[in-house]
Protein 1
Amino acid sequence: MNIRFLETFIWVARLRSFSSAADKLCTTQAAVSNRIATLEKDLGVRLFDRDLRNVSLTPSGERALAQAEAIVRLAADLRLGVGDPHRLRGRIAIGTIDTIVYAWLPRLVENVKSTYPEVDLDLTVDNSLTVARMLLEGQVDLALIAGPVLAPGCRNIELCSYACVWVASPRLGLHGRKLMLEDLTGQPIFAFSRGSQPHQNVLKLMESSGLDHHMVRILNSNSLATITRLVRDGMGVAVLPDVVVEEMLGRKELVLLDVGALIPPLNLHAVFREDPGSSLPGLIAHMAAEIAAGERDPTDAAMHTD
């Protein structure tokens, strides 16, 4: 039985679309249709119900899916076990967030290039919500984000946590004294994208402090470069992962604020689906975990600002 045909079957089942599976597999929709038709003939069952808009598994297809995934996984393990892992080849799409770009993404890219020289990387940088959606839709193979992603078939690996700190431009004169959250409401507060974990944490903090968040100017952006530039220019205050602002604190472009209102740390995860025929997402996810674990203790960032 052709392993590639089984991989095609699995992708059609996951994406519920012949055209989407064709895009994922870098082939044509006609080729996907031919593979499924051949597989159905070999098995003597109909795997999918099709209409103009939807593709869904038949009862026979449901039973076949788990077995197909197991066969493809075993085939991938066999290739990896008897072959040279350094000779792995292919292309992997990685979606990540600005925080990881600022922290250790360059080291990960360098390690991938040296360990798997025949593997090409496609990198997408966006907010965690968008990257998670891209993972579920099959547009990226590995997500390095503020997770986890609680969805069927997704595997989450903890990477690291970064403390979140309040920062501002020294020109605002807010540093060097104890501050309450109310003391910051006269300034715009820059946060991550609306709906993101850090943005929700800011809203919860406002609520727990008895502040009406509608009376506070919270400005959102999915670009850390934009946020840090505006805050350095004195346009407001921000609460950001310490790894992002460490160098700016060292150069005195930003200062830490002693705010009596703590934001939970940013917890980062590597998330991937155990895709048929590809061990790369899992291998690179574990590589990312090793690199993240080797980083400095994130609570030490403030020590470099004296």
Note: Residues 59-82 form the longest helix (24 residues).
Protein 2
Amino acid sequence: MRLPDKFINTIKGVHQDAGEQWLANFDELIWYCEWKWSLKVMEPFPLSFNFAAPVILQDGRQAVLKLCVPGKEFITEKEALIAYRGSGIAELMDYDSDRGIMLLERLNPGETLKTIHNDEEATRIAAGVMKKLHKPASTSHFGVFPTIQQWSQGLLNLRQRFDGGTGPLPERLVRKAELYFPELISTMKDPHLLHGDLHHENILSAEREPWLAIDPKGLIGEREYEVISFLLNNLPDSDKSRITERRVDIFANELQLRKDRILSWAFCHSILSAWWCVEDNAGSADSSLEMAMIFDNLRSRSVTTNG
């Protein structure tokens, strides 16, 4: 199977030697899947960080084959799918942890939420999916899934890399995130198992339910954190602040969330996302920094209005 050069370069860049080895054994991996599940692999979906393709099983049923470089992210995704048991999300049909293989429910027609052009409608659909997904974190989830606190420690790497400075990121914004994160974490209540990456392209139209999620990261935190990925995605070039505020209002009302905490978490996460761009050399951090300032301005306005 011919893999796109961009996908090959991504696998090598992210996974280094493990990625090189995985690519070298890729044809054998496909053969193993065909043999184990008696399936036929079709043309893959557009590829980013993992291989995913529709497959046809021996009995004629459709499914999706997802192949990942084995590691921590594969484990947390698999465990999240097991925990959700198909509630609000594509079902995990089978897996092979050692080889990084998942066989998943095929969602048809499989259009992404980006096809809903009315932004308020799309936001309400996403809120409905979140209602089905969210479940209180159990003791068994801790140690399996990362927590928001662990994610926030990424900013320590920023300081270490730039000898106590913030490199290309504004010192003022980083310092504010460093203040907000501990405060939010210390006042967090009712931790839940979150999807962790629930944006427009990870919500697909389906038959079993009108809309279902795919590709969970698996994260433990409060529910206000879940909406951030959606807020950061599929925004127009102009009027971002107004649309973002409307999305926040809808999520707060539909899910009974606190608007001030959504905006504070979103600001912190945007700074963290900007650092990830720098750390992984994965595109520009400008968009994340722009959204951080929007979230911070909306938060200040909200505090002033409510105060």
Note: The chain has a mean pLDDT of 94.
Protein 3
Amino acid sequence: MSQDLVVQTRNLTKVYRDFWGRKKKIALNALDFDIRRGEIFGLLGPNGSGKTTTIKLLLGLLFPTSGEATVFGEPAGDVKKNEKIGYLPEESYLYRFLNAEETLDFYGRLFEIPPDVRRRRAGELIEMVGLEKDKKRILREYSKGMRQRIGLAQALINDPELVILDEPTSGLDPLGTRWMKDLILDLKKRGKTVLMCSHRLDDVQDVCERIAILYNGDLQTLGNVSTLLEDAARVEVRATDLRLTDEIRRDLEQVIAKHGGKLETVGHPTTTLEDLFLRIVEESKNRPGRRYTGSEGGGKF
């Protein structure tokens, strides 16, 4: 296995059987894909497509019916390789009567991290995930979003090389979602490899370089996000310092028609709802007391 490959699967198949050994469900069918060192890889698919089964196979929690999976060049069933992995499940199963510091100390002990390193790393992670003010509260009092944050800190306590995130933005508000995506991008800058599963396609589009889409256990597509999203049959033109007029529209139609094309739409670009929401919140922080006045033209304050 090349040192540039962190995860590799070949003909990876998982069949669930009933009590009598009869085939009940093909959860994963001959899956082939690679994850390269230092990339953010997205694993997509509807419920029941095989995403969770794939993660469990990579972690060694399940054994394949056929085929193989390797992580860091070692068989996925070898639990020693999990020392290099951080895992955030969709629902974090943490002890509700421990606080944030105690939780990270507990998981640091499982990795046999020295006490002084545990304390230092726990403090850094609590600050990173924005729980400094709530580090003494027991987890039972945490909201779902706060539990997601401490769950991420738990996944990073061993300073892993591979981080597996299952629905990392689940339970987060738009501000928390933006924070999570920025943190995932920061993990890449630190040299981490990230495998991310999510139902929120906009999140995947924002952070992932390559994706694999599963459906009913079968790999449907695999490739770079930019290439897969590109519509090669259309051309997009953008200009600045220009207001759209009928004359401009006619000129564009003539130029495009000259080259055998047809003008479909022309207009001013729009932002995303997420960017609008974040901008309004930030402006509201900078200008306390601002209120919506009911003016037309895009929500004036």
Note: The radius of gyration is 24 Å.
Protein 4
Amino acid sequence: MPEIHDEPSLGRRLVALLIDWVIASLSAVAIFGAIGVRFPPEGIRDQLIINGVFLVEVAILLGLVGFSIGKRIMGLRLINPDGRPIGIPRAVLRTLLLSLVLPAIIMTDDKRGLHDLAAGSKVVRA
């Protein structure tokens, strides 16, 4: 991985994740509200739909442009070892693992979670 300015703080990364989660939740309500999806979720069905929207939104954005809306707002981006976006297949893998939470909280010394290691990605300051 190329050396990039500063490693982003965990707080900055968590705020970006929260922004993405709220956007996905509101998107899910806008798209699936007619079938009763609510925010905050009122059951496992609502949560699964929100998770699906989160996966699609975040994976497509990270894979194609290297940042989600939350990462963009927080001044972060996701790169592969060449410094470019990681592509959609690796972004889907990364986002699926992120959704499981545990891979994201187990980190290396350089603040890369297991989801980043599996996808060959790194979060850096933009």
Note: Residues 10-125 form one domain.
